[in-house]
Amino acid sequence: MKKPLNTILVxxxxxxxxxxxxxxxxxxxxxxxxxxDFDSGALPSGLTASSGVEIISEKETLALALDDNYDPxxxxxxxxxxxxxxxxxxxxxxxxxxxxxxxRVFVVSGQFSAQVRETDEQMGLCTYRMGILPDKKTVNLxxxxxxxxxxxxxxxxxxxEFPMSKWVTLGFMVVGPQLTVFVDDQVLLSAQDDTYAGGxxxxxxxxxxxxxxxxxxxxxxSVAPSGPPETLEHYxxxxxxxxxxxxxxxVIPSDGxxxxxxxxxxxxATGSATNMPLASKKPAPDVVVAGELAFTPRGTGDFEACVxxxxxxxxxxxxxxxxxxxxDNQKRLFVIDNPGADPSSRVLLTDVNIDEPHHVLVITIxxxxxxxxxxxxxxxxxxxxDRSGYYGVTLFGLGKCEGENxxxxxxxxxxxxxxxxxxNNVNLRAGPGTNYDSKGKLNGTVEADGQAKGADGYTWYxxxxxxxxxxxxxxxxxxxxxxxxxxxx
Length: 489
What we know:
It is a single chain. By secondary structure, this protein is mainly beta. The chain has 3 domains: 214 residues, Sandwich (Jelly Rolls), CATH 2.60.120; 173 residues, Jelly Rolls (Sandwich); 64 residues, SH3 type barrels. Helix content is 6%, strand content 51%. It is built from 4 helices and 32 strands.
């Protein structure tokens, strides 16, 4: 039986060229989640087939007997030509995140699809799907979404004359938001989308199609963090560039969402401590926070410092807990965590030039923080108290503290969390706008399941009871940015 030569090595090489998320060591230790060639004659564990899908030997069909690689002893899966949809479901109920589906396919006629990160077992629609449309000489990549997963978003489409009546190796890969489809050694479709974070796979032959499948494999592409690199290339670029680099180097997980960006913020004071809060309604525990700090001390001799804060907790408008990285008038760059009791701090650099701005990037996950100063690793695994909080630029003492290109990004270590909406006597509406009927008041915290942009330009969240609330009048946290855009009533 002829097998595809070094299929996984070819695909991994292409993957590295596209995304570079896998180190050489990770490629050597890649995990096979599922592998089967159907030669036993029985459907392997983890696979289920619909009616009209069966295992046969190649000698039972003329189409395969005419192929140059004909092997009468080889067994394959046949999707029998009929007026019904034929489906081969792979690991139903699994929630694989970053993985690659690879298989050989022999299309005689009709349309054929492969799906990844599928989440709906009954309908088979909540998924990413690549489709082969020989009659239209095109291939496409779509995301099926919406309340009933009955709306599709075309992510990529290409004119392509798919090789008919011959064995072809197909690969469908998902790593974070990146989706890539391969045909043999050619990248065919590529797109980014964050609708689905995990699921299983399915192969589909549509009515009137005659298709054969063999050598189905699923490879895990989840990369365990190997420790932070010594330097960052995009530390002072856009947040998209910095986050993409951190993900590609395995420093942070692939799931997360932007919290805020701010071009410029400053504090000048004549008191002991003054804070400029940032995104106070969007606290988060696990974050990447970055910005360029410029510090102008007054020079009185007393302690003065300019600090970029995160994990800020306040009570009665007074800050009670905070963590941050800053520069002081003794020419020191430092990291500190003040959880309200037993604060800890560490001097990172001494004799720094405070006449020039310095770029800081802080990665805080759980009870550890890693700090980069001007793109260089200053400290890793600095101990902090695990908590949620907001952000800010703070000046201790006199002078002026300025921040530029400030941003914060929430890291999701276990996929997108629920979006929780909290309001106090906030108006609820029947739709995303004040022109919709009033539906009472929101008092307390309710989960949201969708979002839409109103005619007023504001983002509105749809709560799980079907009512709507405007973003700027509530507190919210969790995976709100990852909520699907839904149809308005």
